[in-house]
Amino acid sequence: MSTEQKSSERKSNERTSSEQASNEQNLKVAVLVGSTRDGRFGPVVADWLLGHLEARGDLTADRIDLVETPLPVTFPSFGGELSPDDAALLAAVSPRLEAADAFVIVTPEYNHSFPAPLKNAIDWHNRQWHGKPVGFVSYGGLSGGLRAVEQLRVVMAELNAATIRNTVSFHGASQCFDAEGKAIDPAADNAAKTMLDQLTWWAQALRDARRARPFAA
Ligand SMILES: Cc1cc2nc3c(=O)[nH]c(=O)nc-3n(C[C@H](O)[C@H](O)[C@H](O)COP(=O)(O)O)c2cc1C
């Protein structure tokens, strides 16, 4: 191997290990797709957000779609055992929430609130939310899902999570995206950047804090 080839191989190895180090440092963000309706619009909104998230170098996304990983709807009695089937369903979701440093909930508005399957997914978990930030992307009819987000803030506060002030909302959502899934109004892209910047600040601060001492639940 020539000196030039050796130098190029060394640089490539250095690049790979520095990329690995930076990926390990990346904050893990679980993106929850809150709608499970047949014919739902939710994936368009979620994929747009994921595009923003993945374009950053500092965040690693995990898309949790409650259609692909449904959760049981009947809770066990207090202290009761889960059936093997229910345990298997939870095993596809709970460790991913546990591993997350931050969350983005993508939610429509249903009857001035958020969809029941999303509440179910939230209620199956507790410590997985503690001491972590939650950002929101909402959509709906006239409301843009804003009332769903305000209700989610109350729920997430009960679970010791920190909700991010700035949100992204789409009013009349189906008219807000082009055929390639891009947002028609660039203000939405700016809003996503602001929300993700704030989420990242909180996620970094809270990850450092959780590493320094366990959350006081
Ligand atoms: C059961 C139901 C209730 C709804 N309630 C509201 C509402 O209160 N406010 C609103 O702005 N839009 C409401 N909508 C419209 C939805 O927010 C909108 O159609 C959205 O795209 C639904 O998300 P999805 O397609 O991902 O299920 C409702 C839709 C459904 C199916």
Could you explain the architecture of this structure?
Strand 3, helix 5 (116-123) and strand 4 (133-140) form a beta-alpha-beta unit. The chain is 46% helix and 16% strand. Strands 1, 2, 3, 4, 5 and 6 form a 6-stranded parallel β-sheet that branches. The radius of gyration is 19 Å and the shape is globular. The protein starts with a helix and ends in a 5-residue tail after the last helix. It has helices at 3-25, 42-55, 84-91, 94-99, 116-123, 146-158, 186-212, and strands at 27-33, 59-65, 102-108, 133-140, 162-163, 168-171. The structure holds flavin mononucleotide. Flavin mononucleotide binds at residues 35, 37, 40-42, 108-112, 139-143, 173.
Task: List descriptors.
217 residues, alpha/beta, Rossmann fold, 6-stranded parallel β-sheet, binds flavin mononucleotide, oxidoreductase activity, NADPH-dependent oxidoreductase
Distinct helical segment count = 7
Identify the bound ligands.
flavin mononucleotide
Give the N-to-C terminal Cα separation. 58 Å
State the fourth-level CATH superfamily: Flavodoxin domain
Number of domains: 1
The CATH C-level name is Alpha Beta
- Proportion in β-strands: 15-25%
Low-confidence stretches: none
Alpha-beta classification:
alpha/beta
Q: Mean of the pLDDT scores?
A: 93
Q: Looking at CATH, which topology would you report?
A: Rossmann fold
CATH architecture: 3-Layer(aba) Sandwich
Q: Biggest sheet, in brief?
A: 6 strands, parallel
- Give helix % range: 40-55%
Shape: globular
Element-level helix/strand string: HEHEHHEHEHEEH
* Cα-atom radius of gyration: 19 Å
The tally of strands reads 6
